[in-house]
């Protein structure tokens, strides 16, 4: 009894014999970033929820104090970048598997790219330009840890 295996659902993916194998590198990235993300996320949860007073301590002042330290800025930025690229690559794989028309696939992939790039740019700007004590603000609107000018 012979068994026939159907061809994959994504007929548009063409196997190349030369050049960079982006599918292989995407697969490797998903595994490596998944491991690093587990460490970053559980470290983030441990510091934010277990070391302090728990969820009730997370407020504007907590975030402002945390992001005043360059270590936590880099930690959160790396976590943002890895998570967004990891998620975007996963969505790309799903689109390649299920979008049968070339135009539909291109539109969906472009939308994913725009969303991922926008989130990374905006998130990075927020992390590195966040100022909980803006100059010229009324003292009654500033958090308690801000020096009064």
From TrEMBL:
It is found in: Membrane. InterPro entries: SQR/QFR_C/D (IPR034804), SuccDH_FuR_B_TM-su (IPR000701). CDD domains: SQR_TypeA_SdhD_like (cd03500). Keywords: Heme, Iron, Membrane, Metal-binding, Transmembrane, Transmembrane helix. Gene3D superfamilies: Fumarate reductase/succinate dehydrogenase, transmembrane subunit (1.20.1300.10). It comes from the Bacteria. One of its GO terms (cellular component) is membrane. Coiled coil: none annotated. The chain crosses the membrane at residues 28-51, 71-95, 107-130. GO terms for molecular function: metal ion binding. The keyword Heme applies. Pfam families: Sdh_cyt (PF01127). The keyword Zinc-finger does not apply. This is Succinate dehydrogenase subunit D. It comes from Herbiconiux ginsengi.
